[in-house]
Amino acid sequence: MSKRILTGDRPTGPLHIGHYAGSLQERLRTQADPSNECFFIIADYQVLTDRLDTQDVERHVMDVATDYLSVGIDPDRSTTFVQSQVPQLADLFVLLSMLTTMSKVKSNPTVKEEVQAAGLGANMSLGMLSYPVSQAADILLFQPDFVPVGEDQLPHIELTREIARTFNNRYGEVFKIPEATVSAVPRLLGLDGNQKMSKSRGNAIFLSDPPDTVRKKIKSAVTDSDREIRYDPVARPAVSNLLSIYQIATGDDMMKIEQRFAGKGYGDLKQELTDAVIDFLAPIQQRRAVFEENRYYVTAMLRGGTERAIAEGTKTLRKVREAMKLDFSRIFRP
Ligand code: TRP
Asked: In what order do the strands lie in the sheet with 78-82?
């Protein structure tokens, strides 16, 4: 059955293998069925929720777009666009913010965590508080059936559904109620083996890491004092995570991987893992080199995608305004 999906990323730097395992792989699968429609938003405004330094945003948008192309996101099949360049999103955000109560946004657990992680406290901006409503606009403007996200995004999707229902009840059926889909692949931990892989924690292998960097990073990856190599994410999180990385790199199933390392030591595991990750990244990096040489491919994807997003967004926004009797057709389109 054909479906439309929408998901995206905050452009805070290059993407890592955690992104690949949790999200990019699934996007490629969705994209492979030509009856599906994929929308990918690079949410640059969201970067400003916890920092005001805008110096790197444009470069990071390019980084993310380059990573998308390098893993195989195809601009002829999927629409990749830049949030800040689609004015209809800001327009819809204003309208949706009227349908959202303060108590609803104030109780969002993901926002609370982010405020704490960024040490914002009372300096939290209105933009931070309201970004889930802006994200609801990101989603509803494109009327997707499914929104593939990580666990932490579920409060935002729930809010999106509530806003859509409130709108439809009040002004008439305009919005499709989107459904969140959470990847079955558990979140990868970082090479420290005890927290999720992320750029800010300095524990990630980036898709763009050259072989030498991969070697160094895996060499200093945390293991444990047990000898046996076994997949047991509860009791042995660090070692199990290395096996999970091996699984992503090779595509083998975990039974086979455990058999492969039965009776072997951490030295062997790290050596084979290093080779597997380097081999896995090689074709991605070969493509990356082409796109870095020819930035034109990257900018063309973003321009084309953003144009399509604007066309699609304009249609939805027109329906929204008509339903709300705010299209001003008597004054401006007589
Ligand atoms: N908040 C998401 C993240 O941090 C990024 C995002 C922005 C998004 N808009 C979206 C995800 C719309 C799904 C749908 O990863």
From this structure: 78-82, 37-42, 4-9, 146-149, 179-182
In sequence order, the β-bridge partners of residue 149 are: 182
Does the predicted TM-score (pTM) go above 0.85? yes
Q: How far is the CA of 232 from the centre of ligand 1 (A)?
A: 31
Around ligand 1, the residues with Cβ closer than 6 Å are: 6-10, 41, 43, 46, 135, 138-139, 147, 149, 153
Burial of 192 (0-12, 13-18, 19+ CB in 10 A): middle
| Cα of 153 vs its chain's centroid, Å | 10
Q: Which residues on neighbouring strands pair with residue 4, listed in sequence order?
A: 37
Q: What SS3 state is found at 307?
A: helix
Express each pLDDT in 98-143 by its tens digit.
Answer: 999 999 999 999 999 999 989 999 899 999 999 999 999 999 999 9
Read off φ and ψ for residue 222, nearest 5 degrees.
Answer: -75, 140
User: What are 285-327's pLDDT values in tens digits?
Assistant: 999 999 999 999 999 999 999 999 999 999 999 999 999 999 9
CA of 10 to the centre of ligand 1 (A): 7
Helix/strand/coil for 169: helix
Cα(191) to centroid(ligand 1), Å = 25
d(CA 244, CA 239): 9
Tens-place pLDDT, residues 204-250: 999 999 999 999 999 999 999 898 999 999 999 999 999 999 999 99
